[in-house]
Design brief:
Layout (H helix, E strand, L loop, with lengths): L4 H8 L2 H33 L4 H48 L3 H7 L2 H14 L1 H28 L1 H49 L1 H6 L3 H54 L7 H11 L5 H24 L19 E8 L9 E8 L4 E5 L6 H8 L5 E8 L2 E2 L5 H5 L2 E4 L8 E2 H6 L7 H10 L10 E2 L8 H12 L6 E5 L7 H14 L4 E6 L10 E6 L2 E6 L1 H5 L5 H14 L1
Parallel strand pairs: 3-10, 3-11, 6-9, 9-10
Antiparallel strand pairs: 1-2, 1-4, 4-5, 7-8, 11-12
Helix pairs in contact: 1-3, 2-3, 2-6, 2-10, 3-6, 5-7, 5-11, 6-7, 6-11, 7-9, 7-11, 9-10, 9-11, 15-16
The structure holds adenosine-5'-triphosphate.
């Protein structure tokens, strides 16, 4: 039940459509049974040449039942499909609400292809739950019970046979098929996830695969995976067809048994001969919709696992927020890291540990250290993106987790190591930072980062593939000049630039950030003399922190050693 809780909750919101679907489904089923029962009776009666009005009443009943059955069937389809689409919409909104705050963490946990396959595929497959799992057995059982009650008045023996048939079709077959289904569905889902991940890898890595002449091998691997998946799918379809055939065969078998049984009663004189055709027609019609019970277990298993897999995406990721409070805009922000420990999912080693530091408003902070020492992770923690396992990050004395992230990001100007660019013009890619920025302001920003050779109309391809590394960095920095922010977080903002351009752009940044907090991650150790504080990291720990003079004054200091090493390398 827990597995299916997501779709059940969303479904029960649509009670009206559920009730109408069941009502019209029942009406369509029972009128169909009555229609064929009346037809059977009509044929038998006609043989005895009854008064014309008897025939007229019977013919009129048959016509009325036929029309009611058709209209009810339409009503059933209308409400069940309307309900299904509304349930799907509710599920999509729910899933989006759940994963939106976790987006960055989820991409650390799952391969992007797998998460995409999960969310799109699993949500889609939940459409079958209401349509093929939930209400058809209710309707079928209701039609069966009403028919069996009616049949009991004609022949208790036939009613008993019909009840036995109903139990086999509604309970025994689905239970057996469900057990068989469980195993097969698991491997199908795994295969689908693998295939989607492999395909995404192939698309993203196509250039590298081509350069290293591995594209053909990867393609072959993908084709093999696809063929295996197709084979599994075909085998599943075959299985479903066989199960449907078994149920259909059984239904006919029961109808024949009922015919023979009723014939026997007629021969014995315990049943009127005119009712024989009617009973046979009832038996055929009441079992008519039972093939849906053959596919029900497959859809139930699929819905259960889809619902479970979707819940798993956010289940253990629930942010441990106590209360979400908005930060007042323009409030100077003071960050305080207290013994912070960060570990990425599925990683053995922590990325950052025992990190304690303060970032006071208006200060200029540099984070330095060897590659992989945890500098970017520390910055991600300021943005609330890092998986902090213990310790606290306080913003003006309040736990960062209790603060609405939007109100924090509103005060930040961020340039990360890898910045995203959208397919569109330079202008669109700039205005993405500030929708109100005029063309003039955007041109001015381009000038500050020395990208004057670009016009605002120039095209940027997806992910900025037509820009050089340095141009991408400068375009990302140009965005920052369009926004007012009290905190600037810059992760190696100029690493791809020559030192002269770097200096000129940093001067521009300094001009606009005179009174702002600036945290910069640096690889090069030049130009750090004016920093208010330098945080030195090594293997996930802050090994030193202080001003340039303090750090250089340390006997056997780590920063001093790094600086000396860099000077020696530059001298060569
Ligand atoms: N998304 C991630 N998932 C798992 N491990 C990660 C992730 N990001 C970083 N790490 C690991 O965390 C550690 C710190 O990485 P981080 O990027 O913070 O270092 P860095 O000092 O910024 O490195 P660089 O100077 O090369 O950018 C590294 O061991 C890295 O492999």
């Amino acid at each position: 039940m827990k597995d299916i809780s997501l779709v059940l909750k969303m479904m029960l919101k649509e009670k009206k459509d559920i009730l109408f679907s069941v009502f019209f489904g029942f009406l369509a089923g029972i009128t169909a049974v009555s229609l064929f029962a009346a037809s059977g009776y009509l044929i038998s009666q006609a043989a005895f040449a009854p008064p014309i009005y008897t025939l007229m009443i019977l013919v009129a009943s048959v016509k009325l039942l036929g029309i009611t059955s058709a209209i009810s069937r339409y009503g059933e389809r209308y409400f069940s499909h309307r309900g299904t689409f509304t349930i799907l919409k509710n599920i999509r909104l729910k899933v989006y609400d759940q994963i939106e705050p976790l987006a960055s963490r989820l991409l650390q946990k799952y391969r992007s292809g797998d998460i995409l396959a999960r969310i799109v595929g699993d949500v889609e497959s939940l459409q079958h739950f209401f349509l093929r799992v939930f209400y058809p057995p209710i309707v079928l059982a209701a039609v069966f019970i009403a028919t069996i009650f009616f049949t009991m008045y004609i022949s208790a023996g036939v009613a008993l046979t019909m009840s036995a048939g109903m139990i086999v079709v509604l309970i025994v077959f689905p239970a057996i098929f469900y057990m068989i289904q469980k195993k097969a569905a698991l491997s199908m889902r795994e295969k689908r996830g693998v295939l989607s991940s492999e395909f995404t890898d192939y698309l993203y890595g196509f250039r590298e695969l081509t350069i290293f002449q591995q594209a053909e091998r990867k393609e072959q691997q993908l084709f093999d995976e696809m063929n295996q998946y197709e084979e599994m799918k075909a085998s599943e379809n075959r299985q479903l067809a066989i199960r449907e055939a078994i149920v259909i065969f059984f239904s006919f078998f029961i109808a024949i048994i009922i015919l023979v049984q009723a014939g026997f009663y007629v021969a014995e004189g315990n049943l009127a001969g005119t009712l024989l055709a009617m009973l046979f027609m009832i038996a055929i019609t009441v079992f008519e919709d039972t093939p849906s019970m053959a596919v029900l277990p497959a859809h139930l298993e699929e819905s259960k696992s889809s619902s479970k897999r979707l819940i798993e995406v956010w289940e253990n990721e629930e942010p441990s927020k106590v209360a979400v409070q908005e930060l007042e805009p323009d409030l100077p922000l003071h960050f305080d890291f207290k013994d912070v420990f960060i570990q990425y999912p599925n990683e053995k080693k922590p990325a950052v540990q025992h990190a304690s530091l303060q970032i006071k408003p208006g200060k200029n902070i540099a984070i330095v250290g060897p590659s992989g020492s945890g500098k970017s992770t520390l910055m991600q923690a300021l943005l609330t993106f890092a998986p902090v396992k213990s310790g606290h990050i306080l913003v003006n004395g309040e736990d960062i987790n209790t603060i609405a992230p939007d109100s924090l990001w509103e005060q930040m100007n961020v340039s990360l190591q890898h910045n995203h660019f959208f397919y569109g013009s330079i202008y669109e890619n700039l205005r993405f930072a500030n929708r109100n920025a005029s063309a003039e302001i955007c041109r001015d920003a381009l000038e500050k980062v020395q990208l004057t050779h670009f016009s605002l109309e120039d095209q940027v391809l997806e992910k900025g593939t037509n820009l050089s590394g340095g141009e991408k960095q400068r375009l990302a920095l140009a965005r920052l000049f369009l926004r007012e922010a009290s905190i600037w977080l810059l992760d190696e903002p100029t690493s791809s630039l020559d030192s002269i351009t770097e200096q000129q752009i940093m001067n521009e940044i300094e001009k606009v950030t005179k009174y702002q907090t600036v945290v910069t991650i640096r690889h090069r150790l030049t130009g750090l003399e004016s920093m208010d504080r330098i945080i030195v990291m090594n293997q996930g720990e802050i090994v030193e922190q202080g001003t340039y003079t303090e750090l250089m004054g340390k006997e056997n200091g780590y920063f001093k050693a790094m600086k000396e090493l860099e000077s020696q390398q530059l001298a060569f």
